[in-house]
């Protein structure tokens, strides 16, 4: 498996990114101002991550998705560690990520990668998404914010 920056001439893997964010409109907005990295085996894209600069010396992972048939194989962690290296190359001092209160597995992975909870954006998903989101039998309402000093 290799990870590379998606070229400007290439179409982003929207269907894959929709696994992590149900709004195509929001995905297109952050793709326009971010960098999309793809994990691939040969020419087959199996994972993607979008990284944006949010403030001076701070970047945020705004989407990370792994194809369902490749989940549980460490690909998400490899994408995260690659993003950390790219952030350092861009002189970022902090990397952030946010996920839903109902995203139990993601919260576990991010903390295993060294992220720590920095705050909660209450009602983020009910304010910014038209449709209700449910995961693990829980309504996704709040954004759990996590950060890591590089």
Task: Report on the architecture of this protein.
The chain is globular. It is α+β, with helices and mostly antiparallel strands. The chain has one domain: Gcn5-related N-acetyltransferase (GNAT) (Aminopeptidase, 3-Layer(aba) Sandwich). The longest helix has 15 residues, at 75-89. The chain contains five helices and nine strands.
CATH architecture level-2 label: 3-Layer(aba) Sandwich
Q: What Rg is obtained from the alpha carbons, in whole angstroms?
A: 15 Å
Helix content: 25-40%
CATH C-level name: Alpha Beta
**What coarse outline follows from CA principal-axis ratios?**
globular
Tell me the CATH topology.
Answer: Aminopeptidase
Give the overall average pLDDT. 95
User: Mind summarizing the main beta sheet?
Assistant: 7 strands, mixed
Element-level helix/strand string: EHHEEEHEHEHEEE
| Total DSSP helices | 5
Write a brief structural summary:
By secondary structure, this protein is of the alpha+beta class. It contains five helices and nine strands, in the order E-H-H-E-E-E-H-E-H-E-H-E-E-E.
Secondary-structure map:
Blueprint: E1 2-5, H1 14-17, H2 24-33, E2 35-41, E3 44-55, E4 58-66, H3 75-89, E5 94-100, H4 104-112, E6 116-121, H5 124-128, E7 134-135, E8 138-139, E9 143-149
Parallel strand pairs: 4-5
Antiparallel strand pairs: 1-2, 2-3, 3-4, 5-9, 6-9, 7-8
Key terms:
7-stranded mixed β-sheet; Aminopeptidase; two-stranded antiparallel ribbon; alpha+beta; 150 residues; 29% helix
């Amino acid at each position: 498996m290799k990870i590379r920056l998606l070229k400007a001439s290439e179409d982003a893997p929207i269907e894959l990114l929709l696994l992590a964010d149900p709004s195509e409109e929001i995905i297109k907005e952050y793709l326009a101002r971010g960098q999309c990295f793809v994990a691939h085996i040969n020419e087959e894209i199996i994972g993607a991550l979008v990284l944006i600069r949010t403030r001076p010396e701070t970047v945020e992972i705004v989407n990370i998705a792994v194809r369902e048939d490749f989940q549980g194989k460490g690909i998400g962690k490899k994408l995260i560690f690659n993003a950390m290296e790219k952030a350092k190359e861009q002189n970022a001092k902090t990397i952030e990520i946010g996920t839903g209160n109902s995203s139990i597995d993601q919260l576990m992975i991010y903390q295993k990668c060294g992220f720590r909870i920095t705050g909660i954006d209450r009602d983020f998903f009910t304010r910014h998404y038209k449709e209700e989101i449910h995961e693990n039998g829980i309504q996704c309402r709040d954004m759990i914010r996590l950060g890591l000093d590089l």
